[in-house]
Specification:
- There is one protein chain.
- This protein is an alpha+beta fold.
- The chain folds into 3 domains: 109 residues, Roll (DNA Polymerase III, Chain A, domain 2), CATH 3.10.150; 129 residues, DNA Polymerase III, subunit A, domain 2 (DNA Polymerase III, Chain A, domain 2), CATH 3.10.150.10; 117 residues, Roll (DNA Polymerase III, Chain A, domain 2).
- Helices cover 17% and strands 40% of the residues.
- It has 6 helices and 26 strands.
- Strand 25 and strand 26 form a beta hairpin.
- The radius of gyration is 25 Å and the shape is elongated.
Length: 380
């Protein structure tokens, strides 16, 4: 095999594959990318045992001397990308030798003959299509509340992909807070009889989805038996195992809005107010008090060591005054994944479950206040 590639066209694909290959423990193929070259295309693939990412970047081939495939260490590929200013990248595989070069940077390596794992054939139970940009945002939103520390035992280390012919949700929770992204009705939906509505997508897969499909116009999603999932766009395919276990009934957690006071915020304004107040918060006292009264939002925090803060911001609210205490880390984590220029509605529930929702009702955030408002006078 010998192929010369346009480095600018393949650089992004190599970096994305490296982010998958460098995280797994796959023996001889750990930290390696499979390169498959034909006369008119090249495909990069990487796996960590739970994810298999394949990318065939367009316009990548400059010259193919001999088609073939080989495994290339990520470190050397990334090294060539970072050190050479030349536009060409050459990969040459001989019997026991592998040469990776670009301009003045050349790596001569021992070739690896390990077999790259192939995905198992599984029965597809459900397929549908969604916007790539929406899917990327949904993955970021759901991942912000996924429990990545299974030792705590709050919930599964994954997000629920809840898909029917009428609407699709991607939902993450760690047992203390929950986010949900609503897509609306998917296109080209099909499902076999008895197919489960929910598949649990691992946190690592969400991370890759958020980066790999943001620019795709349409992403085809397939759910197979055992909860295995496949995401496919024009040049990129991602296959993933499922998280074992049953996702909680998230619909029963989201509170009803009827009868609740509501306040509308510009998300950037609310985030900046909470962030400014929380600058004195710490692990012992992470809370922030929010008070709404007389057209003003007041955010207050008292840290265990640094001191106290009070930030006031004008808002459009003329209802009954109320106050509520939240963990500032929960709020800021949610605000950090919201799209820019978002209008956010807060549905106040007193000491019950609180609900934040974007004006288009696509993104919801649910969490419990830290303590009932009537206990404000007891805080130190």
């Amino acid at each position: 095999m010998k192929v010369t590639l346009n480095k600018n066209c393949v650089a992004d694909a190599i970096r994305r594959c490296a982010s998958v290959a460098n995280t797994g423990k796959m023996g001889a193929i750990s930290g390696k990318i499979r390169v498959v070259a034909t006369l008119d295309s090249v495909e990069f693939a990487a796996t960590d045992g739970a994810r298999l990412l394949k990318i065939a970047p367009p316009d990548a081939i400059d010259r193919v001397v001999e088609p073939g495939e080989t495994l290339v260490p990520c470190r050397e590929l990334l090294g060539v990308l970072s050190t050479s200013v030349d536009s060409d990248l050459t990969i040459e595989r001989e019997t026991e030798r592998l040469v990776v070069s670009s301009g003045t940077a050349t790596y001569r390596l021992q070739a690896t003959d390990a077999l790259f794992p192939q995905p198992l054939k599984r029965q597809t139970l459900k397929t549908f299509e969604v916007s790539g940009a929406e899917l990327a945002v949904a993955a970021k939103v759901a991942r912000s509340t996924v429990d990545c520390d299974r030792g705590r035992g709050y919930a599964l280390a994954g997000a629920a992909l809840d898909a029917t012919a009428n609407e699709v949700f991607l939902v993450g929770t760690d047992g203390r807070k929950l986010t949900a992204y609503r897509f609306g009705a998917p296109t080209n939906f099909s499902a076999t009889d008895g197919a489960a509505d929910v598949a649990v997508i691992p946190e690592a897969t969400l991370r890759t989805v958020a980066k790999a499909f943001a620019d795709a116009s349409t992403v085809r999603v397939e759910i197979a038996d055992g909860g295995y999932s496949t995401f496919a766009a024009e040049t990129t395919t991602l296959e993933s195992v499922a998280v074992e276990g049953k996702f909680p009934n998230w619909r029963a957690i989201v509170p009803q809005k009827t009868g609740r006071p509501r306040v509308d915020f510009a998300s950037e304004t609310l985030a900046a107010t909470v962030r400014a107040a929380a600058c004195v918060a710490d692990a012992k006292r992470p809370s922030v008090w929010l008070r709404l009264a007389d057209g003003k939002l007041t955010a207050e925090t008292t840290g265990a060591e640094i001191g106290a803060s009070r930030i006031t911001q004008a808002v459009e609210y003329r209802g009954e005054p109320f106050e509520v205490e939240f963990d500032s880390r929960f709020l800021l984590g949610f605000f950090g994944v919201l799209p820019s220029a978002t209008t956010l509605t807060y549905w106040h529930g007193g000491d019950r479950i609180a609900l934040f929702e974007t004006s288009d009702e696509k993104i919801s955030f649910v969490c419990l206040p830290l303590q009932p408002p009537q206990n404000k006078g007891k805080r130190r």
